[in-house]
Amino acid sequence: MTNQSDMTNYLQTFVEGMISSGVEQAVISPGSRSTPLALLLHRQEQIKTFIEVDERSAAFFALGLSKASSKPVVLLCTSGTAAANYYPAICEAYASHMPLIVLTTDRPHELRQVGAPQAMDQFHLFQGHVKEFIEMAIPEGTKTMLDYAYWQGMRATDTACQVPKGPIHLNFPLREPLLPNLDRSLIAEKTTAILAGKKQLSKEQIINCVDAWQGKKGILVVGGNHTSEEAEVFIKLAETLNWPIISDPLANITTCGKNSPLIMSCADLFIQEVEMIQYPEVVVRFGMLPISKNTMFWLQSLEDKTTMYFVDETGEWQDQLKQTQVAIQVEEQAFVQTIIDKVEIKTVDSWSNQWITWQEVTEQQLNELSEMKTLNETSASLLVHKKMADNGQLFVSNSNAIRFLDRFSTAESNHYQLFGNRGINGIDGIISTALGMCAINPERQNVLLIGDLAMYHDMNGLLLAKRYNLPLTIVLLNNNGGGIFSFLSQRQLAAEDFEPIFGTPIDLDFSLVAQLYDANYVKAESLEQLAVLLETTQKQPAFQIIEVVGDRQENVQLYEKVMMELKEKLREKQ
Amino acid sequence: MTNQSDMTNYLQTFVEGMISSGVEQAVISPGSRSTPLALLLHRQEQIKTFIEVDERSAAFFALGLSKASSKPVVLLCTSGTAAANYYPAICEAYASHMPLIVLTTDRPHELRQVGAPQAMDQFHLFQGHVKEFIEMAIPEGTKTMLDYAYWQGMRATDTACQVPKGPIHLNFPLREPLLPNLDRSLIAEKTTAILAGKKQLSKEQIINCVDAWQGKKGILVVGGNHTSEEAEVFIKLAETLNWPIISDPLANITTCGKNSPLIMSCADLFIQEVEMIQYPEVVVRFGMLPISKNTMFWLQSLEDKTTMYFVDETGEWQDQLKQTQVAIQVEEQAFVQTIIDKVEIKTVDSWSNQWITWQEVTEQQLNELSEMKTLNETSASLLVHKKMADNGQLFVSNSNAIRFLDRFSTAESNHYQLFGNRGINGIDGIISTALGMCAINPERQNVLLIGDLAMYHDMNGLLLAKRYNLPLTIVLLNNNGGGIFSFLSQRQLAAEDFEPIFGTPIDLDFSLVAQLYDANYVKAESLEQLAVLLETTQKQPAFQIIEVVGDRQENVQLYEKVMMELKEKLREKQ
C-alpha cells in the first residue's frame, strides 16, 4: 500500500516541474486510476483544466490549445483503451511539432500481465509518434524520489518544447488507495530557469547566402505553420529581394494584412498554365512544401536549372522533392531578418513583373466569375477569408476546405491567424482542435471552415463548446459526402463503385446537431446573408453553425470553368 | 509507376488468400491510398463490405461482427491518422482475443521520411497490441510475388484465428496510379485446407483431474467470453460434480436458459456476507476472473486452504490472484466434456446445499425489494435480462451496466447470448460493437444496455445503424454522468472536486440524437411500459432508443439497502 501523503508529494512535485517548464493548461478525461493526478491538476491554481469524456476529442482540444497559445499542454487519462484514443492527435502533434505532455496512468507492476481489469501494455504505446516514452517510478516520498519527480516534470516538458517540438509520453504506475491528500499546499515554488539557444549560421555562411541570392532570379516558397507575424517577415524578405513568394495557406502570408503584389496567392491555378520564358536561378524553401500540387509539380520540373535551398530548423529533411542542394538548418526568423538586413541588390523587375502579371490576370478572372457572386462552397470559403476580423482566428479543415482557400483566396487588408492540422492532414479531430484554438482567445472572432465528413468525424468535440461556452462559428460546407474524391482519379469510377466507397453521403440534419449542443444554427441562403452573419460574428462571437449547402459536382465544374477561362486569359497576356 | 494490372493481380490474390482462411466480411473507411483494396473488397462476391467514415467506429463495428460471427473480419483504411483511430478497438481485440485483419495502406518507400502529405511511420503502429505486424512488398505481378501475396493473406488470417486469437496488422505500400483493373475475375478459387489441432491432455492427466475433483468440496469459477452453448456444458459439469458455479455475466451461464440451483448468480452480493463453516477443497477456474470484486476478494482469502486449478487454453497466465497451483492448458469444451463423462462420485449435498440456500435467500430478498417494482437503472437492467427473446442478442456496456446484471440477475428460462467488451473494459466503441453484433443476426432481437457516457463516447457509431438499417434497441440508462464513481472511493470527495472530474454531467437530449440518426425514441416512464416496449422488440426488431432516466445517488442507495437487508436475512438463516 502506497502512503497517501508520499504519493501526493511525489505527484505534486512532478506537476510543479511541469509548471516550471511552462505548463499552464491541462485537459483531463475522467477515470479512476488517474484520480490523484486529476485532482492535483484540477486544484492547482497555476493550471487551467478542461474536462472531456471522449479522449480522442480531448487530445485534439489540447492540440488546439497548444497551437493557439504556443505553450506545452498536458493530457491526462486513466489506464487502458482511454489512452489509445489519444493516438490520432498524438500522431498529428508529432508530425506538426506541437508539445503535448501525455500522462497515462497504469496498474503497478504486480498487476501487469496477470489479467487485471482495465490493464494493458502501455509501454511505448504511441510507438515512434512521441519524442520520448518515460515509465515513471512507483511514487515514493524520499528526497531522492521527489527530486526525480520534479526533474522528470521539468525535463520532459522542456524536451517537448525543444526543436523539433513534439509530444512526450509519461506512464504512471499507481497503487491504491488513489485519493491524494489535498491538504498539501498546491502552489508551485521551485523553478528551473532555462536559457535555450537557437541554431544560427556563422557570419560567413550568411554572407554566402546573401551573395548567392541577391540580384538573382529567385522564388521564395514558404510552407505552413507560420504565424501572421512571421509571415510579415517573409514578405519583407520577398520585397527586399524582389522575388515572388509562393506559400501554403497556413504560412499566413495571405492573411497577415500585407497586400504585396509579390504574393502569388493563386499560384496553384496559374503556375502550370503559363509559358515560362525565364526560369528561376534560385528557389529558397522554408519548411514543408505548400499544399498546392501544381506548385510541387512545377518545382519538380525545374530539375537542374535552379539551385534549391531548403531552410528547416528541425533538420528532419522533410523535402519530398529530394532536390535540396543547400540545406540550411537554422532558426528561421532571426535568419530571415539577418538576410533582409544584408541584402543590397534587388533582382530586376522583369523577373518579378511576369509573376505579378500572372497573379493579376488570375485575380481578375476570379473576380469576374459569376459563380463567385452566388453562394457555393468556393465563394463561401472566400467570403470567410474576407470577413475575418483583424486579430481573428480561422481554423480550416483538411480535404476540400483548405484547397478552396489555397486556390482562390488573395491577400486582403485584414490580418488574422489561420490554423489547420497539416501534420498528417487527417479529417479527424478538426472541431476539437478548433475549439482549443477558440479557448485561448475566446474574446476574438473564432471561425472554423469545415466539410460535412470532417464535421461528422469529430461531432463529440462539440460538447467542449457547450461545456465551456466557447463562441466558435462553424461554417459548414455540406456537400453530403467526400467532396475531395470528385477532384481525384476515383471520379472515373462508375457510380455504383464511387458513391458507396468514395461519395459516402451521410444524410445528417446538422440543425439537430446544433440543437443537441446548444449552438445557434442558420442555413445560409445567399452570399449576402452569409456576409451579414460573418460580420455579426466579428463583433458578437457566438457558438453557431452556419450551413452552406454545396454540391460535389458543382465544385468540380466551377474549378474546371476557372481553369478553362484562365488558360485563355493567360494565353492572351503572353 | 506500378503496372495497373500487376497491382490488381497482386492485391486480388492477397484477398483470395484471406478468403481461403475464412474472411467473409470487411469494414472499409474511405480514403485515397486504399482505393485499389477498397474496390477489390467491395467487388468481391464472397465478401460482404460495410463502409464507415469514422475509423474508430469502423474498427469497433468489425470487432462486433467478429464477436457475433466467430469469424475473422477485415478492416481497411487509408494512410495517416485514419489508422491511428483503429487503436482503441485493436487494443480491445487483442485483449479479448478477436481475429481482426487490419489492412493499412501507405506511401511507398520513396515517399517516406520526406514530408509527403498524409504520410507517417506506420511500422508497428499498434505496438504490442497485434499478434504480428507485416510490411507487405510493393505490388508486383510475377508468379513468385502472387504466390507471396496469396500466402500472406491466407497465413496472416489463419494466424489471427489461432489460439490465442487476435488482431494482425498488414501495411501495404502502394504507388500511383491507384485505380485497379476491375475487368479481372473476382471469384476466389485457390484454397488451402487447414486441419487445426487443439490442445488436449493425456488420458492419465485427465484421470488425475477427475480423481482430484470428484467427491471433493469444490467450486467452479467461469470467466467471460463463453457462448450459451458452452455455458450449458459448464452447468452440466457443475451438476455432475454437485458443485456451485460462480460466473461472469459474459460466461452466459445465467442466460443460457438452464435454471440450475447450483448457479450462484448473486454471488457478488452474498459471498462476503456469509459465515463460511466449510471451505472449498478445490476451486477450478476457467479463463479470466469474473467481474465480481467480492468473489475476487473471497478467492484471495482462501489462500492455502484450497487447491486452485486454472484452465486456460491461451497459456497467457491471466491470473490476477497468482494462486494457481495447477495450470491446465487445454481446449476447454472437449476437456470439460471428457471430465463429465469420467466423473462417478458426486460431492455430498451438505456442501452444495449451503450455497443453494445463500443464493435462494438473496433471490428472495431481491424479489421482495420494493425498488425492483418501480423504474430505476437497476430494475430496468434486470427487466432487459428477463425480456430477452430466445436466441436474442444482448450487448452490455462496461462501467455500471454490466455490474447491475452481475449483481442482480438470476437464471431465467429464456436463453439468449450476452456480449460485451471485457478485454480492457473501456466505455469506448460500445455502440459500434453492438451494431456489429446486430449486423450478423439482424432478424433476431438485438438489444444494447448502455449508460449515457458510453453512449456519448461512440455516438458516431449510430450512423452505421442508419446506413445499414440495423434494428438495434438501445436501452439507455441516463444518470447524466459517470455513475460508477458514486460506487468508488472518489465519492468521498467534496462536490466541487467530484462533479467536474468524476460526475461529469453532459446534459444531452438523447431524443435529438435519435432524430439525427433516424432512430425511434421513447422515454420509459414505468417498468410496465418498458416491459411492453421490450416485448414488442422481441417480435418487431427496430432501431430505437429507450431512455431510462436514472439517478446516480439512487443507484448507490438501492445497493446499500440491498446489502443491509441481505446481511440481516443471511444471519437469520445461519
UniProtKB/TrEMBL annotation, chains A, B:
Coiled-coil regions, chain positions: none
Q: Entry's InterPro entries?
A: DHS-like_NAD/FAD-binding_dom, MenaQ_synth_MenD, MenD_middle, THDP-binding, Thiamin_PyroP_enz_TPP-bd_dom, TPP_enzyme_TPP-bd
Pfam entry (one): TPP_enzyme_N
Q: Where is the Menaquinone biosynthesis protein MenD middle domain?
A: 208-396
| Cofactors, names only | Mg(2+); Mn(2+); thiamine diphosphate
The alphabetized list of GO BP terms reads: menaquinone biosynthetic process
Q: How is the cofactor bound?
A: Binds 1 thiamine pyrophosphate per subunit.
- Top EC category: transferase
Entry-linked PANTHER family: 2-SUCCINYL-5-ENOLPYRUVYL-6-HYDROXY-3-CYCLOHEXENE-1-CARBOXYLATE SYNTHASE, PROTEIN PHYLLO, CHLOROPLASTIC
Oligomeric form and interacting partners: Homodimer.
Q: What is this protein called?
A: 2-succinyl-5-enolpyruvyl-6-hydroxy-3-cyclohexene-1-carboxylate synthase
